[in-house]
């Protein structure tokens, strides 16, 4: 059976260049980079080389990069560490309603520790307005965390403007850029931000490795206690194969992103147009222009996204309904609800996310299969009558 993977926002396959770069660090060069002997010191050099590559991708300094176990840890470290280190200044945190749970739930956890949390609303496209941040920010605000690109609908925020408002107020600005890095240009200096999270497995690197960019001079309390690795910011023996894989993936993105973006946007357009032409009663969600390449988020009226995923899976098509985590529960996506989409419509959501290896034939196959799947489910739906709406 033909298999078509259209769930790149959940994870991506490791690029062959990346796998090749990682390989020696499992066996031949397995040494602990903190050891004294020269083979271990060579591994240390490779770790530092990877740090330089990640820094280059973000236009940061190598000393501003702290390797973590991925996006979730980076978000936890930024928010908890940033809030705790600046507690003297105040106890107010601002985030948005469409964040990943690694940000939302971390902020809610701080609420239990006595912080006050403001969750900013978004408009119908999933955009946070600078005015709403301006209104919510106050002298006690220690931290603002707003995601760069949304994982469900792909909407990109005006981070530069939002960060400027935070800076004017003396508040730290963090962005979860897990869905932006690898897809669009990300320049921490141009954005004027204090912290940024990224994750390797969202851009053709391995799972279990990511980093937090922390601007020089920004005070953050480290979450883990133990060894003095990562300039005392992240205790624990370094994940050397992962770090070297992340470095290689960063280099891969620097070299190939623009060309990939162009190709993926073309295929995305083909998919969008194809859905529009073939299926009635569809609502595309996300911003019409300001969005990352490759994310097609759509709601089909009168049906359940979950059932759609099962029927698509039977035909070899791998996709998602809302985020991978929330698809286990039958709750409608908090992102779509925050955008003002009704629960009934949000339940019929499908996310198709394209990647560097997606082919025109894959899109054509989806366009062949999807109309039948939607029709079959609608025929069984009590909400749907042929000829309506
Ligand atoms: C995947 C993802 C995360 C979590 O990253 P992990 O490396 O899987 O922990 C965080 N935020 C966003 C927006 C994501 O898409």
CA-based shape: globular
Low-confidence stretches: 323-327
CATH class category of the largest domain: Alpha Beta
Largest sheet: 7 strands, mixed
CATH topology of the largest domain: Aspartate Aminotransferase, domain 2
State the distance separating the first and last CA atoms. Answer: 36 Å
What is the beta-strand fraction? 5-15%
Residues in helices, as a percent range: 25-40%
How many strand segments? 12
Oligomer: single chain
- Arithmetic mean of pLDDT: 96
What topology, given as strand order, has the largest sheet? Answer: 2-8-7-6-5-3-4
Bound ions, cofactors and other small molecules, one mention each: pyridoxal-5'-phosphate
Class by alpha and beta content:
alpha/beta
CATH homology superfamily name of the largest domain: Type I PLP-dependent aspartate aminotransferase-like (Major domain)
CATH architecture group name of the largest domain: 3-Layer(aba) Sandwich
The value of Rg in angstroms is 22 Å
* Tally of discrete structural domains: 2
Total helical segments:
12
Instruction: Give, in order, the helices and strands.
Output: EHHEHEHEHEHEHEEHEEHEHHEH
Topology (elements, then pairings):
Layout (H helix, E strand, L loop, with lengths): L3 E2 L10 H7 L15 H21 L6 E4 L2 H15 L6 E5 L4 H12 L3 E5 L9 H7 L4 E5 L13 H10 L3 E5 L11 H4 L3 E5 L10 E5 L25 H39 L3 E4 L9 E6 L4 H10 L2 E2 L15 H5 L4 H4 L2 E5 L6 H21 L9
Parallel strand pairs: 1-11, 3-4, 3-5, 5-6, 6-7
Antiparallel strand pairs: 2-8, 7-8, 9-10, 10-12
Bound molecules: pyridoxal-5'-phosphate.
What does the model show?
Pathway: Cofactor biosynthesis; iron-sulfur cluster biosynthesis. GO terms for molecular function: 2 iron, 2 sulfur cluster binding; cysteine desulfurase activity; metal ion binding; pyridoxal phosphate binding. It catalyses: (sulfur carrier)-H + L-cysteine = (sulfur carrier)-SH + L-alanine. There is one protein chain. Strand 5, helix 6 and strand 6 form a beta-alpha-beta unit. The protein has a seven-stranded mixed beta sheet with strand order 2-8-7-6-5-3-4, sandwiched between helices. Strands 9-10-12 form a three-stranded antiparallel beta sheet. It has twelve helices and twelve strands. Helix 1 packs antiparallel against helix 8 (240-278). The chain folds into two domains: 4-11 and 257-384, Aspartate Aminotransferase, domain 1; 16-253, 3-Layer(aba) Sandwich (Aspartate Aminotransferase, domain 2). With 389 residues, the chain is α/β, with parallel strands linked by helices. It has helices at residues 16-22, 38-58, 71-85, 101-112, 130-136, 159-168, 188-191, 240-278, 305-314, 334-338, 343-346, 360-380, and strands spanning 4-5, 65-68, 92-96, 116-120, 141-145, 172-176, 195-199, 210-214, 282-285, 295-300, 317-318, 349-353. It is globular. The two termini are 36 Å apart.
């Amino acid at each position: 059976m033909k298999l078509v993977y259209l769930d790149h926002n959940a994870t991506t396959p490791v690029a062959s260049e990346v796998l090749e770069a990682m390989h020696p660090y499992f066996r031949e060069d397995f040494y602990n980079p903190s050891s004294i002997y020269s083979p271990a010191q060579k591994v240390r050099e490779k770790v530092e080389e990877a740090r330089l590559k990640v820094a280059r991708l973000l236009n940061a300094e190598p000393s501003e990069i702290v390797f973590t176990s991925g996006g979730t840890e980076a978000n936890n470290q930024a928010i908890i560490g940033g809030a705790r280190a600046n507690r003297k200044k105040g106890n107010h945190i601002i985030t948005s309603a469409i964040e990943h749970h690694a940000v939302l739930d971390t902020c809610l956890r701080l609420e239990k520790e006595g912080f006050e949390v403001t969750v900013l609303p978004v408009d119908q496209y999933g955009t946070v307005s600078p005015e709403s941040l301006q209104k919510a920010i106050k002298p006690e605000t220690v931290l603002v965390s707003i995601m760069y690109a949304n994982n469900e609908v792909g909407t990109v925020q005006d981070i530069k403007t939002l960060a400027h408002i935070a800076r004017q107020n003396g508040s730290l600005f963090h962005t979860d850029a897990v869905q932006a890095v690898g897809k669009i240009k990300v320049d921490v200096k141009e954005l004027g931000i204090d912290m940024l999270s990224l994750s390797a497995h969202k851009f053709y690197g391995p799972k279990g490795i990511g980093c937090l960019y922390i601007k020089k001079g920004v005070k953050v309390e480290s979450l883990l206690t133990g060894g003095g690795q990562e300039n005392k910011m992240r205790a624990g023996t370094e994940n050397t194969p992962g770090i070297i894989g992340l470095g290689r993936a960063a280099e891969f993105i620097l070299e190939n992103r623009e060309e990939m973006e162009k190709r993926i946007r073309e295929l995305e357009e083909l998919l969008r147009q194809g859905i529009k032409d073939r299926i009635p009663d569809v609502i595309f969600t996300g911003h019409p222009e300001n969005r990352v390449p490759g994310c097609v988020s759509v709601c089909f009226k009168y049906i359940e996204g979950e059932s759609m995923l099962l029927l698509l899976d039977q035909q070899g098509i791998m996709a998602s309904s809302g985020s991978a985590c929330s698809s286990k529960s039958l709750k409608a996506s908090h992102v779509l609800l925050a955008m003002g989409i009704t629960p009934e419509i949000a339940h019929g959501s499908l996310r198709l996310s394209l990647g560097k290896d997606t082919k025109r034939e894959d899109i054509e196959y989806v366009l062949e299969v999807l109309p039948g799947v939607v029709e079959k489910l609608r025929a069984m739906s009590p909400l749907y009558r042929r000829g309506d709406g």
